[in-house]
């Protein structure tokens, strides 16, 4: 494991890891299914169970029809006048920060999406403050209508602009770094959050253009490279990240080891009361071991889930080889390199990661990436404003 002066190497998983890869609606439907099954089996008997199930389905359909008219509605993230009164957990100060950005990252240290954002910030040598969110109570983000992490709060002229979703955060900041005449709060308008229904008719908000950089007049010439970068970033979110959970919670023993490692590197002992930490480890490990079996099916992973992990890594490495150069971006990492690295970093202490190093040729690219990030190589490309 790598150490660094900034401590950004700490890799954990989301304590509520199910929510990385499983939509909130899917999760609650799994829990409700378990709950319904217990009701049927344990106490009330088969006919009553069917009645409850039917009633529940009717209720869900009714609920869905009530939200249906919201389809297409845009949710605006408003600028906050005041900084939320939440204590900062720690600061990451970069001596090479060439930007004027003032950022607070609300995160779970172990969440792959949060790791992705930190990887981006660290590569470009941008300083930021961190608020570690309590994954059980989430009171640190009670000021936000968006209930997931990461959330990045950027100080702007008129207050504090919340930015939601890791890929949107990265695209927006990358657009800003390319042309700093653009204002953060203006750039937000290019990434509207639109209401739509998922496969379970549950209302959710989808962020438009989240893999797109806003170039304005300075359109890039190498459009094929831009498109490739975009596709790989989407692959990370849509496919690759889904191979992680079933791999780190493969057996109950592995799930416990993973959660204990999260607790250790995430300093849960410091941030959360003992009872909460024990709940997070015990319930978390057991629940995720169970849920990861469903995730394995949902995302069509191979029977031996390690094979799916290696397949994903090999697909990525083959594409780099085909392109030529050390990174997908050639001689320097692009946003897709940072995305793949970010999510892999989040399993660095798990046996799945060690197995991946032993069974693929990942280490060459991974070590080169670690060096780039620890040296904040991206800061070379940023000029002082
Ligand atoms: N698409 C989002 C996904 C973020 C996400 O699912 N985050 C998880 C943690 S890893 C979360 O906050 N889930 C809600 C919860 O923990 O209550 C992104 O890329 O930022």
UniProtKB/TrEMBL annotation:
Which reaction is recorded as catalysed by this protein?
Answer: prostaglandin H2 = prostaglandin E2; prostaglandin H2 = (12S)-hydroxy-(5Z,8E,10E)-heptadecatrienoate + malonaldehyde
Instruction: List the subcellular locations.
Output: Endomembrane system
Question: Taking every annotated instance into account, which residue ranges of this chain make up the domain GST N-terminal?
Answer: 105-174
Question: Which spans are transmembrane here?
Answer: none
Pfam families in the record: GST_N_3
Output one GO BP term. Answer: prostaglandin biosynthetic process
Q: Kindly indicate whether the keyword Transmembrane helix belongs to this entry.
A: yes
Q: Which keywords fit this entry according to its UniProt record?
A: Fatty acid biosynthesis, Fatty acid metabolism, Isomerase, Lipid biosynthesis, Lipid metabolism, Membrane, Prostaglandin biosynthesis, Prostaglandin metabolism, Transmembrane, Transmembrane helix
Q: Name one GO cellular component term.
A: mitochondrion
What InterPro entries does the entry give? GLR_AS (IPR011767), Glutathione-S-Trfase_C_sf (IPR036282), Glutathione_S-Trfase (IPR040079), Glutathione_S-Trfase_N (IPR004045), PGES2 (IPR034334), PGES2_C (IPR034335), Thioredoxin-like_sf (IPR036249)
Pathway this chain belongs to: Lipid metabolism; prostaglandin biosynthesis
Q: How does it sit in the membrane?
A: Single-pass membrane protein
Domain of life according to the entry = Eukaryota
Main localization category: membrane
Query: What molecular function terms (GO) are annotated for this protein?
Result: prostaglandin-E synthase activity
Asked whether the keyword Amino-acid biosynthesis is assigned, the reply is no
Q: Which Enzyme Commission numbers does its entry carry?
A: 5.3.99.3
Q: Which family does it belong to?
A: Belongs to the GST superfamily.
Q: What is this protein called?
A: Prostaglandin E synthase 2
Organism ancestry: Eukaryota, Metazoa, Ecdysozoa, Arthropoda, Hexapoda
């Amino acid at each position: 494991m790598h150490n660094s002066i900034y401590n950004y190497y700490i890799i954990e998983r989301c304590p509520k890891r199910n929510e990385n890869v499983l939509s909130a609606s899917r999760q609650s439907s799994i829990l409700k299914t378990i709950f319904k099954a217990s009701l049927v089996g344990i106490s009330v008997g088969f006919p009553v169970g069917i009645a409850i199930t039917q009633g529940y389905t009717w209720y869900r359909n009714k609920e869905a029809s009530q939200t249906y008219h919201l389809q297409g509605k845009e949710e605006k993230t408003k600028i906050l006048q005041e900084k939320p009164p939440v204590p900062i957990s720690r600061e990451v100060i970069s001596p090479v920060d060439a930007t004027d950005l003032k950022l607070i990252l609300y995160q779970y240290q172990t969440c792959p999406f949060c790791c992705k954002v930190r990887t981006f910030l660290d590569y470009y040598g941008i300083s930021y403050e961190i608020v570690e969110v309590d994954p059980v109570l989430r009171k640190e983000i009670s000021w936000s209508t968006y209930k997931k992490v990461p959330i990045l709060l950027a100080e702007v002229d008129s207050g504090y602009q919340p930015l939601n979703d890791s890929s949107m955060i990265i695209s927006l900041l990358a657009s800003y770094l390319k042309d700093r005449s653009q204002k953060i709060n203006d750039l937000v308008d290019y990434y509207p959050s639109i209401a739509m229904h998922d496969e379970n008719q549950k209302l959710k908000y989808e962020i438009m253009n989240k893999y797109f950089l806003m170039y304005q007049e300075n359109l890039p010439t190498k459009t094929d490279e831009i498109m490739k970068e975009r596709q790989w970033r989407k692959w990370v979110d849509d496919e690759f990240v889904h191979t992680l959970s079933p791999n780190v919670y493969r057996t109950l023993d592995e799930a416990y080891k993973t959660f204990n490692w999260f607790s250790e590197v995430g300093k849960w002992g410091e941030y959360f009361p003992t009872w909460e930490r024990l709940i997070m480890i015990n319930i978390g490990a057991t629940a995720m071991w169970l849920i990861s079996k469903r995730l394995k099916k949902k995302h069509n992973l191979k029977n031996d889930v390690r094979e799916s992990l290696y397949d994903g890594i090999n697909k990525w490495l083959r594409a780099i080889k085909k392109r030529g150069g050390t990174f997908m971006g050639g001689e320097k990492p692009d946003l897709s390199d940072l995305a793949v690295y970010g999510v892999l970093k989040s399993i660095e202490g798990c046996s799945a990661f060690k197995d991946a190093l032993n069974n693929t040729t990942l280490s060459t690219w991974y070590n080169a990436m670690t060096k780039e990030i620890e040296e904040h190589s991206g800061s070379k490309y940023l000029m002082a404003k």
